[in-house]
Amino acid sequence: MESLFRKIKKKIYNYINFDNKIREIEGLITSESDKQKLLLGKLLTEALLRKGTLEDIHEAEFSIFSQGGDDGIIQYLISKIDCPKTFVDIGGGRYTQPDTRFLLQNNNWSGIAIDGSPVDSLKNSEYYPFFDIEAKQAFVTVENINDLIKFKEVGLLNIDIDGNDYWIWEAIKTSPTIVVIEYNPLFGLKPITIPYEENFVRTKSDYGTWYCGASLTSLCDLAEVKGYSLVGCSRQGINAFFVRKDKLGELRHLTPEEGFVNTTTKECRDKDGKRYFMEHEETISFFLKDAPFYNTRTGKIEKI
């Protein structure tokens, strides 16, 4: 498909040499690709739901728009849980690979997409006028998050901000049925998160891009306080999936030890954007060993 695309683009350019025409053809091809993705997603969803109850949510994984297998996991969870058809997606970037886009276009859910960067990509997309989604540009803090969520009831909350994730979830007053939130696998099972800093941006950190987020243990502790159960983590070792306990049904509650998945990703960057590939132990000793961490059980600052 990519090779065909290059040929078409070259042919058109040779004849008309107008950039706006090139972009128009690119849009048509991208649109067609999205239609094919959605059709594939429907088929995969139908096949998934025929499996019935799964022993492990990894069996549900498939990706249509999400970066990992989160689209499949979410389809499986909403098939098992009665919940409002609304979502709040925090940190979806340009909204090209968020965990909620398949929910929007396949299941016709209503949503709010919030990101600190410009949201023009979503607003200018072909599908934006046809679905009930609101794009908000805002740098999310514990002080403003509840003002940004307009829904009284939320079916799914996705937090992917690579920073104050723990603190944002702690501050949210509403109780979504499902919470999808990133954890930091390099923190292991220690009950730690980065200290809250209102304007935190991980790419500007002195401790590299892995200095962000919270451990799975800290998120599970917070989930317990808020009335949620961990039901699994993605095979990539990035996202954790929580379900409100009164909606758990036949889904199995997991401990952090049972649910933890380490990541194989070795990429990291320093504050100048220089790219490194390191084993996790090297990343910890090179970037994180002197970084301050907040222990969510003791309330004290400590080192990893």
Can you describe this structure?
With 304 residues, the protein is α/β, with parallel strands linked by helices. It has two domains: 1-50; 54-302, Vaccinia Virus protein VP39 (Rossmann fold, 3-Layer(aba) Sandwich). 34% of the residues lie in helices and 16% in strands. It contains ten helices and twelve strands. The chain has helices at 2-16, 19-50, 70-80, 101-107, 120-123, 145-148, 165-171, 216-226, 256-259, 280-288, and strands at residues 86-90, 110-115, 133-137, 156-159, 178-182, 192-193, 228-233, 239-244, 267-269, 275-277, 293-295, 301-302. The strands form three sheets. It has a seven-stranded mixed beta sheet with strand order 3-2-1-4-5-8-7. A three-stranded antiparallel beta sheet has the order 6-11-12, with no helix packed on it. Helix 1 (2-16) runs antiparallel to helix 2 and helix 2 (19-50) crosses helix 3. The longest helix is centred in the first third of the chain and has 32 residues, at 19-50. The radius of gyration is 20 Å and the shape is globular. The model is unreliable at 11-19 (pLDDT under 50).
CATH superfamily of the largest domain: Vaccinia Virus protein VP39
Taking the alpha carbons of the first and last residues, their distance comes to 46 Å
How many domain modules? 2
Q: What would the principal axes of the Cα set say about the shape?
A: globular
Q: Please estimate the helix content.
A: 25-40%
Computed CA radius of gyration, to the nearest angstrom: 20 Å
- CATH architecture of the largest domain, by name, is 3-Layer(aba) Sandwich
Structural class: alpha/beta
Q: What fraction of the residues are assigned to beta strands by DSSP? A: 15-25%
- Low-pLDDT windows of residues: 11-19
At CATH level 3, the topology of the largest domain is Rossmann fold
SS elements, strand count = 12
* Count of individual helical segments: 10
* Major sheet characteristics: 7 strands, mixed
CATH class of the largest domain: Alpha Beta
Q: What is the average of the pLDDT values?
A: 90
For the largest sheet, list the strands in their spatial order: 3-2-1-4-5-8-7
Series of secondary-structure elements, N-terminal to C-terminal: HHHEHEHEHEHEEHEEHEEHEE
